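Researcher: Next entry in the queue.
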Amino acid sequence: MNTVSNLIPATWSVALWSALLLIAVFMARRCAWRMLADRDNLNVFLGATVAVLGLWLIKTGIKPGLHFHLLGATALTLMFRPGFALLAMGLVTLAVTLLSGQYAALPANVLIMGAVPVAVSWAIFRLADRHFTNHLFVYIFVNAFFGAALAIAAVGFASTGFAAAVGAYPLDYLLDEYLPYYLLMAWAEAFATGMLITLMVVYKPEWVATFDDRRYLFNK
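Model: Structure for this entry, 220 residues:
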């Protein structure tokens, strides 16, 4: 979505910043920060964050605040689990905000473009982990492919609902000219994430925190 500041009413700002603060406090208390003390882990985290930033900069749009680009949130969630995935998405959003100067829109963008897809991706992973057989095909297809498609679709619905709720654009216009394109992007997001995660679990499984050789490969 990448909404812009002038589309957000002042009455919404306090609620949005408060929600972002609560998430920041939760992350500060729950994330295992010692992981980033390892140089290799830090390099992978920063490299993945920069790569996702590059994806975000390759974008198109139809009107101010209505932009389209790949997210990368599901890949980050599978690589780093939700806490650090959300941190990476927050850093990407902050970088885009510094480039655009749309500071008032920062909390809305973090919540919609970061918290929503990370939460959906993690929920899919947890459901698959609990209810499906531990198999490489299940991990790739359900968690990476299907998870990424559902995550970006959720962002499309969330951004459409937000834009309509704040009165930025009429709901009919968003349903006709905005949301359908997000749903079409689900295939591209799913294919890119599935391919990337497949390559990593084959060649660099240590980069994917949610993947375990013993669970998904041994004796299968």
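Model: The two ends are 41 Å apart (CA to CA).
Researcher: Noted, moving on.
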